Structures are given as structure tokens and as C-alpha cells.
Amino acid sequence: MARTIIEKILSAHAGSDAKPGDIVDIFLDTRAARDFGGANVVKNLLDHGLEVADPSRTVFTFDCNPTGSDQLYAANQQRCRTFARERGIRVYDIDQGIGTHVAIENGLAWPGSTFVSTDSHANILGAIGAFGQGLGDVDMAAAWAYGKVWFKTPETVRIELVGLPSKSATPKDVGLRLLNHFGANGLLGCAAEVYGEYADSLGLSGRITISSLATEMGAIILFFPPSGEIVGHCRKATGRNDWAPVFADEGARYARTEKVDVAGLGPMISRPGHPEDAVEIEAVRGKKVDSVFIGSCTNGRYEDLEEAAAIFKGRKVAPGVVAKIVPATDAIWQRAMKAGLFEIFKEAGVMISNAGCAGCAAGQVGQNGPGEVTVSTGNRNFAGKQGKGEVYLASPRVAAASAIAGCITDPGNMPDAAAVFAAPAPSKAPRKKETLAPSGMKPLVIKGRVWVVRKDNIDTDMIFHNRHLAITKVEEMGPFAFGNLPGWEDFSKRAKPGDIIVTGANFGAGSSRQQAVDCFKALGIAAIVAKSFGAIYERNAINAALPIVTSGLVGMEISDGEEITVDLAKGEITRADGRVVQANPWPKAQIEIYLRGGLLG
Q1: The domain containing residue 404 runs over which residues?
Q2: The domain spanning residue 302 has which CATH number?
Q3: Which pLDDT band, with edges at 50, 70 and 90, does 599 fall under?
Q4: Spatial contact of 548 and 530, defined as CB atoms under 8 Å apart
């Protein structure tokens, strides 16, 4: 039977044929936990009396707070170090950089391998033809303890890039074009393979940039078939020849084929709040900026810094604008320094930080303040994700040009003089919330009143903001549920144990954070009914025994306070007037996990 890349990789690691829709246990070549998720992984293992199955395949990567600037982060990092010393686990500490990039550099992943991390962008590994997946804390604890976890084999979408972009475009612009084409959930729950003349021409950094945006399209992973250059890089990194790259079979079955026109494509930019709201730069050209960030797992490679340096050379950052650069790894940092790029940056007035995630996490440079307008080379600009201001997503070339111009622009359209700075507007401090007690186990038939949230693509930063990620006690998470969702900031005060949330498509998009599930458990929420769920969020909820149900109930005439009854096994929702609405019945595997109180129960 002809198979796609993901079907072949999962089949090889399951020891059996993995067809779309099949749930299989997958052997994991490398299992990585980061500094914020790692502490909860350790806690889950210790609480359940579990040990690490294979320390040689297990690593910590500290990339969210490489400065150790936050006491809770510092405590969590040290807790992980102690655990690692006791069990002989490797730690890529705060001086090494972003875990997924460290994995590629150090041969922890290779074409055809499986790699998991407490990082929702672990699917970056699709850039080298490896299967990477972000897992929540419970999921990762199971991976560490047993060396494998369950996966549902996804359908594969074939993406064909048609034509060649203009010389002014970069891989980031092509990635934003894909976001514009697919939206936030156009690849929801699917794997994807990218083909075409432009795709074939890309080196490692360009492939990483585009693959890193898969999560923002709802995809499980976005694969580039490995080129000779990629295979050679990975042979050198692993120091081994006992693996072979994986390619789709001729005649493999795809869910669909999407042709995306990139012919003549120029600079793109994503407007604040939605990575998929990508437009041509003309739509926002001239917008005054306060700060610029160049880095992240999307655009922190050496080639990205080199492009930025070419624009900064001989120029100065606009007065009042703060420009920040964070290389993805220490190896890239060292290379850039030796090549003289840092001298160019410093003469231009750019701040350089040590390697790490930077703006995407609360513990390093890159966060912005209320009213601040930032041009970022990251992959997410959800409200509140990178601070309290507005974040536009763009390429390193556009970011560097905007830093010099003081407004959004590209290198081909630099103004004669920098834009005049405008002072930011003040904002109110976030409201505090009360703590509510968590609820106990629920039966397979649940009855409760509903809260109807008529929104699609509610991301995990809206559900549980990243500034609270250092919290490890579930009972302390409830007050922050929906704390960053406009109009629902006081949800934790109004909700009662036994309530049911009814919402739209792609609920839980974004990060792999377990807290976005556990905050509802802390409030005693009985179930969440959504049109669809983000892929990682769905796993986290199942593994935490939080009842989630897929149904289009939100599209019907249903109001807050209505009482419904949900039969999880049958997939039926009975409304107060007796009408029955169909939902997806739970598979046996999900019921078993639920009834034993969770994956680790």
C-alpha cells in the first residue's frame, strides 16, 4: 500500500501499519521537556511513582527563560537539574538555545525519526523530514516513563507551491502566504507535505521557517521531503549512517491537494492578534513602530541574522525604537559573533541577547508593553502572547528595515528620514480572580448548564496566558481561565462546578501548555463541547480526563444557562426541550483513559 511520509514514519515506529484514523502506540526516538513544562513532567512522574524508561533518549532543554530571571522559572529549572543528575539525563541548559534547533544541531532528530517536546512547535522537525510533536505535561510524563505514547494517524494534505516568489520575498513571506491561504484551521488535525520548485530550493533555515508555522494553520506537522543537503547535515549531526530518509510513496493517497500560488510574491506581514491575517505589506506600510524583535524558532537562524545585518550595516535604529536580536542557538550566536554581525548590530543600536525563545516566552527579551507596536519575526501574535501591545509578524528583512525607518516598511522602500515617535496610550491592570475548588470525576453521562462562547480559534493564550506558566498546582490555575479572552475575563468568578462550555472551531489552538486544560478542571467544569479542537489541546484534555466533545452545538440557537445532557459514549447531546444533537462518540481508548482518571491514573 502506497503511503505518505507520516504514515511511513508512524508505521515504522508502531511496528504495524498506521492508516489515517488508526490509533497506534509510537516509539519515541527522543523525548524532550523544556524549563516550564519540565517541572510538571517531573512532578507527574514523582506523584505517580514512575521512573524514566531510557535516560539516553531523554533530555531537558531550557529555552523559555535562559536568563533565569524569574524566581519560579529558576526554581523549576533547578528542580529539573536535580532530577536529571539523579537519573543521568542530559540537560541542554540555559546557555544552549531553543530545544528544537538544539535537537537538529546535536543529532537528537534525523529524517524518519520521532521527536516529542513540551513545545507546540516541535513540528519544526518536519523541516528535516522527521516527525515532531508537542505534548502536554501528562503526555510527556507518559513518554518518559514508557518510551511511547498513542497517536491518531492523521490524513495528509499535499501542498504544491506554484511559481517562484520575487527576489524581495523570503521563506517567511511564503510561510505567511500559506497562513493567508489556509487560515487558522485550514489544516486542522492534518499532516502536510510541501512540494514545488521553490520548496526544493530551500535550505535548512528556510524549511524551518515555513515548518514552524504549521501549528498556526492547525496542522499536526508540515513536512519537506529531505534534500541531499538536509540528509548530509543530519548525517554529520548524528554521526551515524544507520538511518534512511523517508519519502512519500508514488501513488500515496492524500486527503486533498492544494495549489498555492507564490509567483511574484513580495513582502507579507500578519496584522496583530491573528497569524493567519497575513496581507501584503502595502496594507500597513507607514505604521509607526515602537520596537522590533528578530529571533524565535521561526527566524533565529544564522541566515536570518545575516539578512538583517545587511540592512543594518551603516545605518542606525530610529530614535525611540528598541531593536532586539536573539539567535536561536548558542552555536548560531558564536558564528554570528565571529562573522562580525554583532559589531554591525551594536553600531546600529541593536540589543543582542543570549540564545533562546525570547519574545514568545515571558522570561527573556521580546515582550512589549501596553500600547507598544512591535514588528516580530516570531510565529505567533495572539493578543497578550508577546506582551500587552500589538505585534505584527514579518521577515527579518522587513523587521530590520522597520527598525531603521521607525515605521513598517521593507528594504526596497526606505524613507528618507525616520518616522516621528508617538507616545503609547495607558492601559488598565488585569483584574484579580478568586480561586475555586476543582471537581472530582464525572460519569459518562454529564448534565449541566452551559456557557456559550461564540468564537472560533480560541488560542491557549486566551485560555491561560503565558505569564502564569510557572504555576504547577492545578488548584491555583482556576482564577486565570479565559483571563485573556476579551469579554470573558471574569469567567472564573461566574462559573460553577458542573458547568459546561459550548464553543466554536479550533478551540485550544496554539501552545502545548497543560494549564489551558487544567484551569477548567480547577473550576470544576464538567465538559467542553466544541465544533473542533486544536490537535495538542485535544490530546491534553483526553489525557487529563477532562471531557471534551466534538459537535456543532454552538451554531444552534442555544443560550447561556440552558441545561443539556451529554452522553460521551454514544455521542448524543440532549437539550432541555428533548431535542437530540449528534456529537462524535468517544473511542474506546478515550473512554479507558477517562475512566481511570487520566493517562497516568
Answers
A1: 271-413
A2: 3.30.499.10
A3: very high
A4: yes
Q: What share of the chain is helix, strand, coil (3-state, %, to 5)?
A: 35, 20, 45
Return the bridge partners of 450, or none. 500
Helices 204-211/302-312 angle, 10° precision? 100
- At 328, list the grid cell: 536561536
Comparing CA positions, the residue from 37, 10, 23 lying closest to residue 512 is 37
| Pairing assessment for the beta strands 572-574 and 563-567 based on DSSP bridges | antiparallel
Please tell me the pTM assigned to this model: 0.86
Task: Please tell me whether residue 288 adopts helix, strand or coil conformation.
Answer: strand
* Greatest extent of the chain over all pairs of C-alpha atoms, in Å: 73
Strand partners, 221: 191
569 neighbors 591 (Cβ within 8 angstroms): yes
370 phi-psi bin (left φ>0, alpha ψ -120 to 50, beta other): beta
> What average pLDDT does this structure show over 487-512?
96
User: Which tens digit of pLDDT belongs to each residue from 3-21?
Assistant: 999 999 999 999 999 999 9
**CA separation for the pair 444, 396 (Å, rounded):** 51
Q: Are strands 256-261 and 156-162 parallel, antiparallel or unpaired?
A: parallel
Query: How far is Cα 209 from Cα 472, in angstroms, rounded to an integer?
Result: 31
Domain boundary among 229, 261, 293: 261
Using an 8 Å Cβ cutoff, are 94 and 113 in contact? no
> Identity (one letter) of the amino acid at 230?
I
Grid cell 559589531 is found at 343
Strands of 510-562, DSSP E: 527-530, 548-550
User: What does the pLDDT average to over 473-482?
Assistant: 95
Alpha carbon 471 to its chain's center: 19
CB 52 within 8 A of CB 140: no
Whether 100 contacts 122, CB under 8 Å: yes
Phi, psi (deg, nearest 5) at residue 279: -135, 165
277 lies in the same domain as 256: no
Number of domains in the chain: 3
For residue 325, report the phi and psi dihedrals to the nearest 5 degrees. -125, 130
Q: Do 184 and 200 contact (CB within 8 A), yes or no?
A: no
User: Phi and psi of 444, rounded to 5°?
Assistant: -75, -10
CA distances from 403 to 5, 39, 302 (A): 41, 37, 19
Provide the percentage of residues in the chain whose pLDDT is more than 70. Answer: 95
Query: C-alpha distances in angstroms, 524 versus 157, 246, 381, 446?
Result: 38, 45, 30, 13
Strand, coil or helix: 124: helix
- One domain for residues 257 and 278: no
Instruction: Give the 3-state DSSP-derived string for 82-117, with helices as H, strands as E and coil as C.
Output: HHHHHHCCEEECCCCECHHHHHHHCCCCCCCCEEEE
> Is residue 419 one of the residues assigned to a domain?
no
